[in-house]
Amino acid sequence: MNDYEHDIDLQRFTVGIDLALEAKEMVESGGKGPIPGVLSEVIEDDGITITRLDIVDEQGSQLMGKMIGHYVTFEVPELRKQDTGLQDRVATKLAQEFETFLERIGIGKTANVLIVGLGNWNVTPDALGPIVVENTLVTRHFFELMPDQVAPGYRNVSAIAPGVLGITGIESSDVVQGIVERAKPDVIIAIDALASKALERVNTTIQIADTGIHPGSGIGNKRKGLTKELLGVPVIAIGVPTVVYASTIVNNTIDLMRNHVKDQNGNTDHIFGLINQMEENDRLQLVREALGPLGHDLLVTPKEIDQFIEDIANIVASGLNAALHDAVDKTNVSAYTH
């Protein structure tokens, strides 16, 4: 028997835990050591933290509430300061890491790529995907119409922002499936906005995963996703948390209050009672149940979201352009794409 055998199944808490790194932190919060079936590596590089996380078997998948696969997470808290030099460094690191990621999962330099920007361009926190598509270097039309004039160092890349069900009346997965049948890409890169359980990760974190993507999963929607099983080609997901749940903010506030009281007199039991003895998972669930009479949880995004979303979308688009096309310098990427 291992220490994690009787832990709470994180499948109960998948809403609002889009980041594999956060799922790992929740499982490890009990202080029981490494998670069976999960390998991780952390790299620090002058304000940029890169975490490579591999879920290698079903035990790790069950404990984490995430699919077996490779996950890479960039954490850059200082992105909020809108430092263009830092943005360029993040785009450069993203390009280099993503190129390595493609090689690791067997995607060659000649593979045809379809970039799918998921989300609603009319709702700023959900507009990440469409903005990335807008700034993507697409070349498929050149390969189709004038292949002999395409310079070396460019690959066949196409891009689409399929919209959302509420606007088009068509599931995003159905739109993409139709395009795949006609365009026949070798790999799909899907970009989507995510939800985080930590305010400090909103608009400062980028996750790459080879497990596909489920449109709307960050806000609790359960619909057809974009996966290799459905589309017949590998699907790489790139996500950025742009919102956080109100229940998460309440839960974090409880932690801050407990720490403050503890610093003052060392005893928090007389104020927080049973809540003081609860595990974080159980306390978060209790907060969500308390908000239940509202009929829904609330999603919160920073008031500076308009500029944040443009900046992070430019970083992602610039990194992708450099990673996918050898003709673009991967050692000095500019995040300014306009």
TrEMBL record:
Reactions catalysed according to its record: Endopeptidase action with P4 Glu or Asp, P1 preferably Glu > Asp, P1' hydrophobic and P2' Ala
Keyword Transport: no
Entry comment on modification after translation: Autoproteolytically processed. The inactive tetrameric zymogen termed p46 autoprocesses to a smaller form termed p41, which is active only during spore germination.
Annotated SUPFAM superfamilies: HybD-like
EC number per UniProt: 3.4.24.78
InterPro entries with a match to the protein in the record: Pept_HybD-like_dom_sf, Peptidase_A25
GO BP terms in the entry: proteolysis; spore germination
UniProt GO MF annotations: metalloendopeptidase activity
Pfam families: Peptidase_A25
Alphabetical keyword list: Hydrolase, Protease, Zymogen
Signal sequence annotation: none
Gene3D superfamilies the record matches: HybD-like (3.40.50.1450)
Record has Repeat as a keyword: no
Residue positions assigned to the propeptide: 1-18
Subunit annotation: Homotetramer.
Functional summary from the UniProt entry: Initiates the rapid degradation of small, acid-soluble proteins during spore germination.
HAMAP family, per the entry: Germination_prot
Similarity comment text for this entry: Belongs to the peptidase A25 family.
Name listed for the protein in its UniProt record: Germination protease
Species this chain originates from: Paenibacillus baekrokdamisoli
Taxonomy of the source species: Bacteria, Bacillati, Bacillota, Bacilli, Bacillales
